[in-house]
Amino acid sequence: MDPVQEGSTGNGAANGSSSIEFARRAALLAQDLHCEDVRLLDVRGLSQICDFILVASGTSDRQMRSVAEDMDELAEQTGYQRFRVTGDSLDTWIVVDFVDVVVHLFEPGRRRFYDLENLWSGSVDIEFGRSDSEQTRGSDSAEV
Q1: pTM of the entire predicted model
Q2: How many Cβ atoms from other residues are within 10 Å of residue 45's Cβ?
Q3: How many CB atoms lie under 10 A from the CB of residue 83?
Q4: What local confidence, expressed as pLDDT, does residue 61 receive?
């Protein structure tokens, strides 16, 4: 069985939904809210802290705060609880911790500096949503 499919129920879910399911929905939400370069990493077996890391770049501090709030709403809807939200004083990096899933929202320059994808280079990238062709079709149909 594909390890990405196995997913754990995890500490964050109250309703039994898997952490991989929540992580994929969170990644898709970030993409839908215009975050750039959204990556979902499976760090099970590499990290003792969480199962999945979601990394995305925001277009502004305001947008990043809004995405963090929407992630919290998604968690409530799916039975997950947010453990904490932290960030730096300039809002160039916001971390939303759902225990099994940790979301990192970065300003692009700060993301390059910390380079979490390289830090977790042994992780597996997880597909989480629409393909590029589906996104293009969706935006084409919206322009009618």
Answers
A1: 0.79
A2: 11
A3: 15
A4: 92
